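How a chain folds remains the central question behind the approach discussed here. This step matters because it turns folding into a mapping between discrete strings. The sequence in question and its structure tokens are set out directly beneath this paragraph.
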Amino acid sequence: MEMNDRINTYYPSMTKSEQKVARCVLEHPDNLIYLSVTELADFAGTGETTVMRFCRKIGFKGYQDFKLMLAQGLPKRQTLADGEQGAGGGDYADHLYALMVGVLQSSLGMLDREQLQQAVDALDQARYVQFFGVGSSGITALDAKNRFLRIGRRVEANSDSHIQSMMAVTMGAGDVAFGISVSGSTLDTNDMLMKAKQNGAKVIAMTNYAKSPIASIADIVLLTAGKESPLEGGSVGAKVSQLFIIDLLCQGLEQLHAEETKRMKELTARAVIDRIY
């Protein structure tokens, strides 16, 4: 069933609040695929629970399931990333390059320097740091672990959700739980962060959405750019923005301890040099 038909079928049985959400979807489908559940709730003038009830009422498991079907029903976007040549003889390589530059510019423009410094200080003072993330963001967590180890920081990241859960509940005061989620609505990651926070750990979140569930859990929020639709999960743009923030954090730590960082870089480089021809 087409999304509009589905919504219209259930519309009379919806509450007034749910009907507000329905009208937003009917009138602005192109924009909604890039909104978090919190942002849609604000846009519709309702609460997150109302949005979730709306999604379930029209037959979806949840908000992400709804967004995926919404994106599939929209006309295919004619972008250079689809492999087509653009005006002026450009090709997808030029387009992708411009896109990455734009993502970095957006990342810098969205950067809250105060939040960044707070994150650097928290990481510097932490007894233990654990990076949490799943899917593509889990790969970023492993990248962050590698980057931090090279400057002598003892951090951890693990792709196994059971290990992550055990690590979360064993964290405490003086520790930092660092969650990475593009959508800010990843259940596993948010659950880990909440467990860590309940045990006294400080929480840092890296997300594309200032208004999202992960941001409400975090003590410090670092915003990234490169928003992606449900059909573009793991986009390179989002990854570039995440790695840019990770590098900024490492640079901040390096400036606090220049000599020690230089020494650790040399030690870690020598530790792997025998493994390279």
Q: What stands out?
A: The first strand starts at residue 128 and ends at 132. The beta strands are 128-132, 155-157, 175-180, 202-207, 220-223. The longest helix spans residues 236-256.
